[in-house]
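Case study 2.
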Amino acid sequence: MKKHKTCCFIDCYSQDCFMELSHDNSDYIKLESKLKEICVSLIEDFSVTHFISGMKFGLEQASAEIVLGLKTKFSGVTLEGVVPYENYTINWSESQRDKYYSIMKNIDKEVMLQHNFSHDCMIKRDLYMINKSKYIILYTNNTNEINAINKYAKSIGKVVFILDIETLNTIPNIKICR
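Prediction:
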């Protein structure tokens, strides 16, 4: 897959905050609508055809579900799921695992980076996705983590969009193309 047509989603957002949002919650509905708007803009305005999700519970999975939904409207769009290690979901609830597997069975490509957990496995996952992508969408409420990812990605020529979950604004505006 060509890097210039690839976008990855990296979620640095607190999982506890996301879990408070249910699918019928108005804040979740607004967030989901914004994520869909971003994905459509990436496809239509930036010619993105390949999306990569680290499949983290929360915004990465929500983005993956949106991409799967858009595949019927936009032919040629593909989704890659990156699993940092084999037992990634072992401590998740049954409903969280069910959601994960329902997404994974519909993706186009699965990549498992290593068999066993290591303290740097999530960093390796993020680096894999960044290095394979031209566009990076960062979801965050953790400025230290986002600053490090943003600095690295920009140093190697990536276009980084930061989604402010509180305001649902992207920085820079997603319609701006370099």
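Strands lie at 6-12, 50-53, 78-83, 109-112, 135-140, 159-164, 169-171.
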